[in-house]
Amino acid sequence: MRLWIGLIEIILLSLIVTVYADEHSHKYKDGEEVILWMNTVGPYHNRQETYEYFSLPFCRGKKSTIGHYHETLGEALQGTELQFSGLDISFKENVKKTKFCDMSVEEDDYNMLTYAIKNHYWYQMYLDDLPVWGIVGSVDDSGIGYYMWTHKKLDIGYNGNQIIYVNLTSDIKLKLDKGVQIPFTYEVKWHQSNTKFSDRFDKYLDPKFFQHKIHWFSIFNSFMMVIFLVGLVSMILMRTLRKDYARYNKEEDLDDMERDLGDEYGWKQVHGDVFRPVSSLMLFSAMIGCGYQLILVAFCVIIIAMVGDLYTERGSLLSTTIFFYAVMSPINGYFGGSIYVKQGGKDWIKQMLLAATLFPMCVCGIAFLINFVAIYYHASRAIPFLTMVAIACICIFVILPLTLIGTVLGRNVSSGSHNPCRVNVVPRPIPDKKWYMEPGIIIFLGGILPFGSIFIEMYFIFTSFWAYKIYYVYGFMLLVFLILIAVTSCVTIVCTYFLLNAEDYRWQWTSFLAAASTSIYVYSYSIYYFFFKTKMYGFFQTTFYFGYMVIFSLGLGLMCGAIGFTSTQAFVWKIYSTVKID
Predict the structure, then answer these.
(1) How far apart are CA 329 and CA 297, in angstroms?
(2) Is residue 503 within 8 Å of 270, Cβ to Cβ?
(3) Range 360-366 contact pairs with CB under 8 angstroms and sequence separation of 24 or more
(4) Residue of higher predicted confidence among 306 and 5
(5) At a CB cut-off of 8 Å and minimum separation 6, what does 336 contact?
(6) Distance CA 356, CA 136 (A)
(7) Dihedral through CA 89, CA 93, CA 98, CA 104, nearest 10?
């Protein structure tokens, strides 16, 4: 019965009502119990390789165990495994040095602990939702002796009836040997603080890193790139196209030879094929719809993060992302269904199903493979079965119906639209052209400038996710996101103009893939980042890193592809609706 209750509450992304002390309201009475949760333990250099704290042979405090539920879907997916420490802590009551347990070191325990110390294992705790970190032990200078820190000193700051900060000092280093009995002690000291409760997470932020002058310079550099590209596009629209229009439309003051030769080249020659239905229409429309959905999800999450400080709650950013992805499903169906019906698609139900499941299936497929590795390693990152069921229920009962609603609306709204030019019955042969005008080359080169506008921000995002930084400068992220949209739009318009001028009308997939190729450069940068900017090691962490970077790059590619196609479509419609067609 409890499992079903938990499932329903996870699907709704709501809090489980388990009130021990007041860690949810963050308000305490004098003498009220304060819970210290032990979360995970793992190698310092592998942030995502974490295990349950008591998977190592640590001993518990004497207080009775309190169960903890995953409060949100994001918390469950991020591998949070809170377990009660058993330490007796009360609000504003100091605790002198007190022994809370003894640990007998058997041979298996010794091997596990020495391995953990050798690999710089650290552990994480939570007190009133404030994270606290500590180190398991250390190795002496000879590299032979292993020592454990056996004393935890907690300095807790409070302001009124709320907890402001928690500092952990590890003390009393004892040598680790087989057969010895190691006592563990703790003490608690409370301190008055003038810091406001709303500012208590400021100590975890690193403004010197995120607000470094290089960060500002990268934003300025990207902004100048936008100005250059907008100027380039404006030049094409105002000068080149004006000359094209003059050449195409002039009927007087031409001798016979000019009249015969003047219209034999350029983008007007493919007016009868430029609006020809794209190949693999069902897949194309589904990818465009997914791209639109992800763009709006990213925009909404960034805005919410700017306003709500999502980094202060465990798993809240991931939960918010899942919520907005589900809610934005009609956007996917509307735009994907609209493109599908405009280009003559008939099997709209299959298209709707593909659009609704394309990105979730890719994400779930990769996550499923990574989950196998996590289960093999008994890591806390292994996704629980109940969470898998919750994700499946969200896809079936939320995303799918909303996508259906959007598809029906998109079909009805777009069913009567017409193209500016008629489509010829027989496709026009594509003439030979320079090698650098081939679609493959344009696609390969199309992502360079968009990647150049965001790669500095990628460094800060990667560092916050894969290292021990909390990303909080979402204003920077929003600005970079807008710059990426502008740069991608301009680049794809220029690429499409050159492609059409070479009398190649295959602009739909080319514009999408040229913009989406940004993700290839981002993934290539992630490979460089892994080998030269981190000290990650081991099969689990490597699989986790590259697997989730595939998901990130895939989402970015769909977003950029949708941006590139949309801007190019507007450009193509504009130029062909203005020129005179015989």
Answers:
(1) 10
(2) yes
(3) 360/395, 360/399, 362/551, 362/554, 363/551, 364/391, 366/547, 366/548, 366/550, 366/551
(4) 306
(5) 285, 286, 288, 289, 290, 292, 351, 352, 355, 406, 407, 410
(6) 46
(7) 10
162's tokens: 């709320």
Q: What is the mean pLDDT of the chain?
A: 86
- The mean per-residue pLDDT over the stretch 316-345 comes to 93
Q: What's the pLDDT score for residue 582?
A: 57
Contact in structure between 176 and 146 (CB atoms under 8 Å): yes
| pLDDT value at 264 more than 60 | no
Contact 23, 86 (CB under 8 A): no
- Cα(332)–Cα(406) distance, integer angstroms: 7
Report in angstroms the alpha-carbon separations of 197 from 29, 89, 124, 327, 549.
16, 20, 22, 32, 35
Of 187 and 435, which is predicted with more confidence? 187
**Spatial separation of the C-alpha atoms in residues 203 and 195, rounded to whole Å:** 11
Any idea what the Cα angle at residue 34 is, between residues 468 and 190, rounded to 5°? Answer: 80
Evaluate whether 182 touches 105 at the Cβ level (below 8 Å). Answer: yes
| Model pLDDT, residue 512 | 97
Rounded Cα distance between 374 and 46, Å, is 13
Task: Calculate helix-pair angle for 474-501, 213-235, nearest 10 degrees.
Answer: 30
The pair of three-digit structure tokens given for residue 67, joined into one six-digit string:
């169960």
List beta partners, residue 192. Answer: 158
Q: Euclidean distance between the first and final Cα of the chain, in Å?
A: 73
Measured CA to CA, the distance from residue 461 to residue 471 in angstroms comes to 7
Q: Is the pLDDT of residue 509 over 60?
A: yes
Q: What is the mean pLDDT of residues 491-509?
A: 90
Tokens 């719809």 -> residue? 289
Measured in residues, the chain has a length of 582
Residue 321 CB partners (closer than 8 Å, separation 6+): 74, 297, 301
At 66, list the tokens: 């309190």
- In the numeric block, which tokens belong to residue 361? 């299936």
Q: What is the mean pLDDT of residues 80-103?
A: 90
Q: Which amino acid is at 106?
A: E
Calculate the alpha carbon distances from 527 to 332, 445, 522, 524 in Å.
Answer: 31, 19, 9, 5
- Cα angle value 528/529/534 (rounded, 5°): 125
CA distances from 36 to 25, 61, 127 (A): 16, 11, 5
65 burial via Cβ count (<10 Å: 0-12, 13-18, 19+): exposed
Alpha helices by DSSP H, 36-192? 73-77, 107-118
Estimate the share of the chain in helix, then strand, then coil, as percent rounded to the nearest 5: 55, 15, 30
